[in-house]
Amino acid sequence: MSLLYSIKEGFAGIGRAKLPASVTIATGFFSLLLLGLFGTVSFSFYQLIHEVRSRVELEVFLDDRISDLQADSLNARMQSIAGVAGTRFISRTEAASRFASDFGADVVGILGTNPLPRSVEVSVQQGYTAPDSIAHIEKQIAALGGGLDIRYNKEYLRGVERNARLFTLITAGVGGVIALATIILNAFTVRLAMYARRDKIKTMRLVGATRRFISAPFLFEGIIQGLVSGGLAALGLWLVFEQALLRYEPAIYQILHPSTTVIYPALVALGIALGFFGSAWSVARFLRKA
Amino acid sequence: MIAFVNADIDIRKKPIFRNLNFSIQPGELVYIVGRSGSGKTTLLKSLYMEIKPVKGEIVVNGYSSRKIRKGKIAMLRRKLGIVFQDFRLLEDRNVYDNLAFVLKVTGTKHSLINEKVMTALKEVGLENTAKEMPQNLSGGEQQRVVIARALVGEPLAIIADEPTGNLDPETSLEILEYLKKINAKGISVIVGTHDYELVRHHPSRTLMIKEMNLVECTLEPAPADTCWRPVPKETAQRPTVAEVS
Questions:
Q1: B97 to chain A nearest CA, in Å?
Q2: What is a single cellular component term in the Gene Ontology annotation (chain B) (predicted)?
Q3: What is the pLDDT of residue A204?
C-alpha cells in the first residue's frame, strides 16, 4: 500500500461523502473558533499579568553611616542573591534630581541640605515574582546587615497574585470545558460520519483488505478535514482580530494581538490532531466489529 | 483444501453445530442446504474465519482456525471469493473500482489492474458496465458484479451465501450457470442455499444441515428428499497445515 494511494483515497473519500465531510468540517470550525477566541483572550491576560508582575521592584534604602565602599559591596552582594535580576545604585544626587522631576521642587534649595538617602533598586527574575519568593529575597537582603530599610508594594503584589489565581481557576475551568466539548463534539461527529460507512468497512474486510489498508485513507481523510476546519477557524479568528477589532476596538486589539501569532498555528495543529485521532478511534471501533 | 475436524460452532454461546467432520476437495461444487436459520451462513462464515469453532478445528487452504492470527485472516480471504445475498458492493464507487479495490488490496501492479478487471467483467458478461454505479444496475447484474469481484483476485474457492436469495427464478438459474462455469475451471464453489429447486436443476454434492450436523443428500425430484447418511468422521481428510501462525 503506497502513501500516495492513501492520500488519493483520503481526498476521494471526502468527495464520495460530501455531506458527512461538510458536517465534520463545520463542527470542527465552530468549536475550534470558540476555543481560539477563548484561548486568545486567556493567553493575552496571562501575558498582561506576567507584565505586571515583572514590574515588581524592591527598594533598599542604605543607612547614612554606611561608607560608599560598603554600599558598593552591599550592591554587589544583592546582585548575587538567587532570583535577583539586577540592581541599580541610586546616589543622593540622583535621588534629589528624581525628587525634582517627580515633584517639581529642588529639595536642597528648600531645606539647604539633601536628606534623601542612597538606595539600591532591586529587580526580580520572572520566576520569583510571587509574594512568597519576594519575601524570601527580602529576608536575604535584610540578612546582609547594615541597617537596610527594604520596601516594596506588598498589597499591590498580593492583589495581583489574588486576581491571577482567580483568573487561572476560571480560565482553566472554562477552557477545560470548551476543550473537552471540542474534543467530544469532533470525535462523535467523525464517528457518526464513519458509522454511515460501517458496511463499507465490513465489505473491505471481507475481500481481504488489512486493517492498515482500510484505515490509512480514513486517517488521511481525518487529517485533511482537520486541516481545513483548523485553517478556517484560524481564518475566522484572523477576521475577528485583524479586521473587526483593529478597525473598531484598536485598544483591545493591541492587548490581544500578540497572542494570535501563537493561536493561529495552534488551531491548525489542533484541527489536524482532532481529525487524525477522531478518525483513528472511529475506524478502530468499526474494524473491531467488522 | 477445506476440512472440518470435530468442530463445534456456537453463536453467542448457543450451540449451532456439534462435532462437524467433513472435507471439500479442490474443484468441487458443494451445496450447503437447510432451512432458513439452520446455520448455513454461520457455516460459510466459519470458512472465511469470521466465526471460529469453540472446539475442534477448521482448516482452509492450509490456514488453521486454531493457529491463525488476526492479521493472516485477510490473507486467507484474498484466496477466497465471497458472494453475498445482499451483494455488498461498495456503493460509493463504480463497478470498475469495486473490482480494482480487490486487486489494490493485494498490491497488484497498476498496469495489470485494468486487464484483470476487464477480464473478470467479461466472464460475467458485464464489460460494458464498468463505469456504472452499482445501484444503477439490476439485482441480477449486481450479483454478477459480485461474482466478477470474487473472481478477479483469482481465488482457490468461491463461497456464495444465498447468492440467488434476492433474485427471480430465471436470474437465479443464470447466476448458478456462472458459478458452474467458474467451477468448471477448477475453482471450488461452495453455495449455501435454501432454494432446493435450484439444486435439483444443477445437481452436485449436497450437504444438508440436520440436528446441528451435516448429512450428505441427494435432492430428488420426488416430493421427499433423500438424505441417506451423516458425513462419516473418517471421510474428513485433514490437509497439511502449511501456515503456522
A1: 12
A2: plasma membrane
A3: 92
Cell numbers 437447510: residue: B34
* Domain-wise residue ranges, chain B: 2-217
> Which sign, positive or negative, has the C-alpha torsion B192, B196, B202, B204?
positive
Are A208 and B104 within 8 A, CB to CB?
no
> Nearest-CA distance from B74 to chain A in Å?
4
pTM of this prediction? 0.71
- How many angstroms away from the CA of B240 is the closest CA of chain A? 23
pLDDT of residue B177: 92
B45 interfacial to chain A (CB closer than 8 Å): no
Mean of per-residue pLDDT scores for chain B: 89
First to last CA, chain A: 20
Closest Cβ–Cβ partner in A1, A203, A213 for B88: A203
CATH fold for domain B2-217: Rossmann fold (3.40.50)
Q: Which of A8, A207, A213, A218 to mutate to test the interface with B (most CBs of B within 10 A)?
A: A207
Q: Give dist(CA B20, CA B58) in Å, integer.
A: 9
Distance CA A64, CA A80 (A): 23
| Cell of residue B191, nine digits | 453455495
Let me know: does A72 contact A151? Beta carbons within 8 Å: no
* ipTM for the complex shown: 0.83
Please indicate if any CB of chain B lies within 8 Å of the CB of A17: yes
